[in-house]
Design a protein that fits this description.
This protein is an alpha/beta fold. The chain has helices at residues 43-50, 73-76, 94-99, 108-116, 121-130, 147-161, 177-187, 237-243, and strands at 3-13, 18-28, 32-36, 58-63, 66-67, 79-82, 165-169, 201-205, 217-222, 225-231. Strands 6-7-8-3-9-10 form a six-stranded mixed sheet, with helices on both faces. A four-stranded antiparallel sheet has the order 2-1-4-5, covered by helices on one side. The longest helix has 15 residues, at 147-161. It starts with a strand and ends with a helix. The structure holds adenosine-5'-triphosphate (ATP) and magnesium ion (MG). The site of adenosine-5'-triphosphate (ATP) has 11 residues, from helix 1. Magnesium ion binds next to helix 1.
Length: 245
């Protein structure tokens, strides 16, 4: 299997605590990973180390074999993040926000044109429709959307980014069951317009152990350490409940 990311002997210590320690993981193309563990176990810290927004104090992370500290912005664009706070730009419309996903592949002039109005309509609408939202919200301001709609716009922006790996921090929090199913299917590429080059791999933190078996792999953290890393179908209920005690 082809390795996309390798996390090697990674720890992150702050003055007062160790947030994650001795982490070793390989993420392969096609992996759909559920990242679980109780509050404070290190899930967000690990996701932020993988997407390069946090630097570990020891160890290294590689993307396609290269240390991510040496990867260009263009290479790092292959890792797309769904942040807990979504990081949408309130001053821009839905369509302009979605287009922001393509910024890394476009020129400075293109970025300026996107600030003045919606461009590349067709590509933008394709991503909007892929997350189950209709064309008539494309010119709406972000502040007018419900929280579930905002989350889907952030996912549409990820589709526009054409990344290889999606790193998603608690994408299912505060969503109704129908929306959880919709978003899960997009992340797992079960319900996606085949002409979109959506990510083949994902690592997703969640607080819903009942969703683990939808993923093909589960990683469990306890006190900043990996204590489970296995095929999600072979992990036992005992191993999962041990994470929460
Ligand atoms: N900015 C920070 N500086 C220092 N320590 C931090 C910081 N953010 C988090 N921590 C600590 O790092 C550890 C891991 O936190 P983290 O946010 O990664 O956990 P989590 O598993 O994502 O929790 P939750 O499920 O509540 O989101 C915790 O002990 C936490 O207190
Ligand atoms: Mg967290």
């Amino acid at each position: 299997m082809s390795k996309l990311i390798e996390v090697k002997n990674v720890s992150l210590k702050s003055d007062t605590n160790t947030r994650v320690r001795d982490i070793n993981i390989s993420i392969n193309i096609g992996d759909h990973i559920a990242l679980v563990g109780k509050s404070g176990s290190g899930k967000t810290t690990l996701l932020n180390i993988i997407n390069g927004s946090l630097r570990p104090t020891t160890g290294e992370v590689t993307l396609n074999g290269k240390d991510i500290r040496e990867c260009s912005d263009n290479k790092m664009r292959k890792i797309g993040s769904l942040w807990q706070d979504l990081r949408l730009i309130e001053e821009l419309t839905v369509g302009q926000n979605i287009n922001c996903g393509a910024l890394g592949r476009r020129s400075f002039g293109w970025a300026i044109a996107n600030l003045f109005g919606l461009i590349e309509h067709r590509e933008c609408l394709k991503c909007l429709n892929a997350v189950g939202l209709s064309n008539n919200i494309v010119n709406m301001n972000i502040e007018k959307l419900s929280s579930g709609q905002k989350k889907r716009v952030a996912i549409a922006r990820l589709l526009r980014q054409e990344c290889d790996l999606i790193v998603a921090d608690e994408p299912f929090s505060n969503l109704d069951p129908t929306l959880i199913t919709t978003i899960l299917k997009i992340l797992l590429r079960e319900q996606i317009d085949k002409s979109l080059s959506s990510a083949q791999s994902c690592i997703v933190s969640l607080h819903r152990p009942e969703l683990i078996d939808k993923f093909n792999r589960v990683i469990g953290l306890k006190d900043g350490r990996i204590v489970v890393d296995s095929d999600s179908l072979s992990v036992s209920k005992g191993e999962i409940s041990n994470l929460y005690c």
